[in-house]
TrEMBL record, chain A:
Keyword terms of this UniProt record: Amino-acid biosynthesis, Aromatic amino acid biosynthesis, Lyase, Pyridoxal phosphate, Tryptophan biosynthesis
Gene Ontology CC terms, in alphabetical order: cytoplasm
Top-rank lineage group of the source organism: Bacteria
Name of this chain's protein: Tryptophan synthase beta chain
Organism: Nitratireductor aestuarii
Reaction equations catalysed: (1S,2R)-1-C-(indol-3-yl)glycerol 3-phosphate + L-serine = D-glyceraldehyde 3-phosphate + L-tryptophan + H2O
Pfam families according to UniProt: PALP (PF00291)
Primary role: The beta subunit is responsible for the synthesis of L-tryptophan from indole and L-serine.
Complexes and interactors: Tetramer of two alpha and two beta chains.
UniProtKB/TrEMBL annotation, chain B:
Organism: Nitratireductor aestuarii
Gene: trpA
Oligomeric form and interacting partners: Tetramer of two alpha and two beta chains.
InterPro entries recorded: Aldolase_TIM (IPR013785), RibuloseP-bd_barrel (IPR011060), Trp_synthase_alpha_AS (IPR018204), Trp_synthase_suA (IPR002028)
Residues the record marks as active site: 61 (proton acceptor), 72 (proton acceptor)
Substrates-to-products reaction catalysed: (1S,2R)-1-C-(indol-3-yl)glycerol 3-phosphate + L-serine = D-glyceraldehyde 3-phosphate + L-tryptophan + H2O
A Pfam family: Trp_syntA
Name recorded for this polypeptide: Tryptophan synthase alpha chain
Similarity section: Belongs to the TrpA family.
Protein EC: 4.2.1.20
Annotated keywords: Amino-acid biosynthesis, Aromatic amino acid biosynthesis, Lyase, Tryptophan biosynthesis
PROSITE patterns xrefs: TRP_SYNTHASE_ALPHA (PS00167)
Superkingdom classification of source: Bacteria
Amino acid sequence: MNKPIEPNSFRTGPDEQGMFGIFGGRFVAETLMPLILDLEKHWNEAKTDPAFQAELQALSTHYAGRPSKLYFAENLTRHLGGAKIYFKREDLNHTGSHKINNCLGQILLAKRMGKTRIIAETGAGQHGVASATVSARFNFPCVVYMGATDVERQKPNVFRMKLLGAEVNAVNSGHGTLKDAMNEALRDWVTNVENTYYLIGTAAGPHPYPELVREFQSVIGKEAREQIVEQEGRLPDVIIAAVGGGSNAIGIFHPFLDDKNVEIIGVEAGGRGLDGIEHCASMNAGRPGVLHGNRTYLLQNDDGQILDGHSISAGLDYPGVGPEHSWLRDTGRVKYVPILDDEALEAFKLTTKLEGIIPALESAHAIAQAVKTAPTMGKDQIMIVNLSGRGDKDVHTVAKMMDMEI
Amino acid sequence: MSQSEAGMSGMKSTRIDALFARLRQENRPALVTYFMGGDPDYETSLSVMKALPEAGSDIIELGMPFSDPMADGAAIQAAGLRSLKGGQTLAKTLKMAEEFRRGNDTTPIVMMGYYNPIYIYGVDRFLADARAAGIDGFIVVDLPPEMDEELCIPALKAGLSFIRLATPTTDDKRLPKVLENTSGFVYYVSMTGITGSALADTTKVSEAVNRIKRHTDLPVCVGFGVKTAAQAKAIGASADGVVVGTAIVNAVANVLGSDGKTTADPAEAVATLVRGLAQGVREARLAPAE
C-alpha cells in the first residue's frame, strides 16, 4: 500500500467530513444521519464550553479518581533487564478501567442534548459497567447489548451491570461478541431515535464518535506526559497500548503523536496466530472496508463479508479498529504488532506475581509487548505501558486457560 | 462481463421511468418486491426472482447479502446468513440478475444492501458489471448523501439510478439534500426502525408521502412493515409504490425445513403471496380515499 504523505502534524484530524485520510466518515442509515449531525453540533458546542469542561473535570477528579497514577514497575523492569517500565494506572479508576473517562464525557453530552435513555454495546463488559455506572449516577435508564459468548465469559461484569440497574441484552447473532453487540445497539438506536443516546465505548463508529471518544480519553496521555516529565525529567522513548477498538490507545497516544522521538506501539490481539482466522489483528491481517459507520481496517473475506475473529480477551475481540488508528498505521506514525493469546496470558501471570497487579487481559497484551521490547532497550531508556484496566473480571477465563476450577 | 454497453444509454428513458409512466396511466401504485439473492441457494433464488414479475411484481429489489446488516430485522438477517452459507457472493448476485435479464428486459432491478461488499468488489468494476447485467439502480443503506462521492455520483455518471431512503427523521430542512442526487424513485421508510417491524399508521405515512412530494417530482415508494394485501392497498392509496420485503423473505423461510432443504417450492410460495399483494395495489385507488 502506498504510504500517504507525512502530514505536518498528526493531531489535526479528523477533517470536517470526519475523515482521517481515507478512514472514518459517516456510513450510516439515513434514519441516523440527523441524529449524528445533532450530536456533532452539541459536541462542537460542548468542547469549547467552560461549564461543560468544568463539570467533566470535577467528576473526573472526585468521582472517577483522576489523575490516575504513573507507577514505576520496578520489579518487572529488573526482571526484564532493559528499559524502565512505567504503568499508566487506568486500572485504578472507578469501575476499574479507562472506560469511565469516555462515559462521563458522553453522559454529560446526553444530558445536554435532552436525551432520556442510554444504550451501549460492550465486549469485556468494562464499557457496559462504566455505562451502567454513569447511567445510575445521572438517573438514566440504560440498556447494554452484549454478545452471548461474552455474557458467558464475563459473568462478574454482567452481574455488576444488573446491580447498577442496567438491562443486559444478550446478542446471539454471529459469534455473539462485540461486533454483534454493536449491530444490535445500532438496531435499537435506529428504532428509538427520539429519546435515545448511543454511548459508544470505543473510538470508532460514525463521525463524530471517533473524535469525541478520543478527546475524552486523551486525558490519559495528557496526564502521562506531565507525570513522566515530573518523574524522569523527560518524555518516554516508547509508549505501548493494546488496541481493540482502540480508545485507551488513542487516549494515551494522541498527546504524543507530534513528539517524533517517542516511538509508539499499538498491540493487536494475535489470538492463536495470524496464519488462520483466529485472531483480531485487523491492521496486520485485514484490509480497509466499511462497517459500523466508518471506513477502517477490517477482518473480511474476498467478498467483503466481515469475519468474526478470536481473542482470549473479550475487549479485543472485534474485527475492526478505530479509524484514526488505521490512518496512523498507514502514515507509519504508529507501529501495530500482534500478541498471541498465550503471550498475553504469560504477561498476565508475570505482572500479577512480580508487581502485585492483576491486569485486564486486554492490558496484558500491551505488557506482553513490553516484555519483548524492554530487553532490547537501554537501562536509561523509558517506556510507558497503558495499564488500561484491572483483571478481576478475567479470573474465570484465566482459570479455564490454566485448567483450574474456581 | 464487459463494459461494452456502457456510455450509450445515459439519455434514454430508464426501465424505472418507463414503468412509472405506464402506471400513472393505469392509475395504480407499483408493487416493489424485495427478496434475498442466493437464499437459500443460487438456483432456488433465481427461480424466486423469475416468479416475481409473473405474479405481479413491478420492480424487483435484489438483496445483496451482508454479514452485518445493521438496519435489518431478524428475518432478513437470517436470510442473508442462509444465502452466504449457500455460497452467495456479490459476483453471483450480479450473475443472477444477468440470467434473469435473458428472459425479461422490462422489469426494473434495483440491488439493495450494504456498501462494504461493493467497496471490496471495486466501485468502477461493480458499476460496469451491474450495467452489463441489466441492473437499473441501487439502494445502499449505509451511504447517506454525506458519502455521495463513494458510489452515488459514480453510479449516476454510469447512467444507473441511486435510490435514496427518506425516513421520518428526514425533516423538511434535510429533504432537499437527500433528494438532490436521488433518481428513479424515493424510498420512504415508513417508521424509524429495522425491516420487518410493525407497520406505521397509514395516515401518518400518507402525510409523509405528501410532504416528500412537495419537494420532488420523483415517484415515492413506501416500505418497512408492509406484509399483507390489505396493507399494500392502504399504503398504495397515496404512495406511488409499495415495497414488501420481510413477508417475501419469510415466505421462502417458511418452506425451508430445519435441515435447510425445501419442503415446498419457494418460488410458488412467493408467487402466491405476491399475487395477493398485486391484487392489493390494483385495488388501492378504486375506492375514493377517505
